[in-house]
Automatic annotation (TrEMBL):
<keyword id="KW-0732">Signal</keyword>
<feature type="signal peptide">
    <location>
        <begin position="1"/>
        <end position="19"/>
    </location>
</feature>
<protein>
    <submittedName>
        <fullName>DUF881 domain-containing protein</fullName>
    </submittedName>
</protein>
<comment type="similarity">
    <text>Belongs to the UPF0749 family.</text>
</comment>
<dbReference type="InterPro" id="IPR010273">
    <property type="entry name" value="DUF881"/>
</dbReference>
<dbReference type="Pfam" id="PF05949">
    <property type="entry name" value="DUF881"/>
</dbReference>
C-alpha cells in the first residue's frame, strides 16, 4: 500500500505550469515544416511510453490487493485535484491569440517575427492567469501541469507532445474579474497588446463556464517496479 501511494504521489505531485527552452520575446525565426513532423513523431512515441507506464501502475495496483489499490486511488485522486490535474468545471476566462494579417508586413520597421504568436506571448498570458488565481488551465485543450511545456517550433507552437498552428486558445478556471484584472496588470500582456494594436495580432478575452479535461499524461515517471 505505501509503495503504491508513493508511486502515484510521484505521478501527481504537481502545482504549477513550467515551460521549456527560449526566453526571447517575439524573436524566433521560422523553420522548415519537417521540424513540425519530427516533433509530432516524438509526441506519438511519448504517448506510447505513457500508455506503457500506466499499464505498469495498474499491474502494481492489482498485485497489491484490490482494497489497498482502491484506497491508493482515492488518495491519488485527491492529489490530482491539488496538482491542478483533475477535471475541473467553473467560471473562468478564455483568451485567444492569433497571428497578424500579412498586410502588416507593409508597415515600416516590421519583420515576419513581429507578425506571429511566440512562445513568450503565451507564457505572458499564462503567468498572468496563474497570478490572478487560476485554479486550472489548458492551452489548445491540453491541460497544463508542472511537467507541461510550451515551446516555439518555427511559426507553430508545441504544447507538451502536440504541435499546433494559430489561433491559440488559453482557458483558465477562476474568478473572471480577478483573471481579467491580472491580464490588465501584466507587463508582458501589455507589451503584446501594444503589438496587437499596431500590427493586428489577434487578442480576445471571453468570460463563461468552462470544463477543463483531466490531465492524462505522465508526470516524468521513467519506470516503476515492485519493491522487494
Amino acid at each position: 500500500m505505501v509503495f503504491i501511494v508513493l508511486l502515484i504521489c510521484g505521478l501527481l505531485m504537481a502545482t504549477s505550469a513550467q515551460t521549456s527552452e527560449g526566453t526571447r520575446l517575439r524573436t524566433e525565426a521560422s523553420t522548415l515544416p519537417d521540424i513540425v513532423k519530427e516533433r509530432s513523431d516524438q509526441g506519438r512515441k511519448l504517448e506510447e511510453s505513457v500508455a506503457e507506464q500506466r499499464r505498469t501502475v495498474e499491474e502494481l495496483q492489482r498485485r497489491s490487493g484490490s482494497d489497498e489499490a482502491d484506497e491508493a486511488q482515492k488518495f491519488a485522486d485527491a492529489l490530482a485535484a491539488e496538482a491542478r490535474a483533475a477535471e475541473l468545471t467553473g467560471e473562468g476566462v478564455t483568451v485567444t491569440l492569433d497571428d497578424a494579417p500579412r498586410e502588416s508586413m507593409n508597415l515600416p520597421g516590421v519583420s515576419v517575427n513581429d507578425l506571429v504568436i511566440h512562445q513568450q506571448d503565451l507564457e505572458g498570458v499564462m503567468n498572468a492567469l496563474w497570478a490572478g488565481g487560476a485554479k486550472g488551465m489548458s492551452v489548445q485543450g491540453q491541460r497544463i501541469v508542472a511537467t507541461s511545456s510550451v515551446q516555439c517550433v518555427g511559426n507553430t507552437l508545441r504544447v507538451s507532445s502536440q504541435v499546433y498552428s494559430p489561433p491559440y486558445v488559453i482557458e483558465a478556471v477562476g474568478d473572471p474579474d480577478a483573471l481579467r484584472q491580472a491580464l490588465s496588470d501584466s507587463p508582458a500582456v501589455q507589451v503584446y497588446q501594444q503589438y496587437a494594436e499596431r500590427l493586428g495580432l489577434g487578442w480576445k478575452v471571453e468570460t463563461g463556464t468552462l470544463t477543463l479535461d483531466a490531465y492524462e499524461g505522465a508526470f516524468d515517471l521513467s519506470q516503476a517496479k515492485v519493491k522487494q
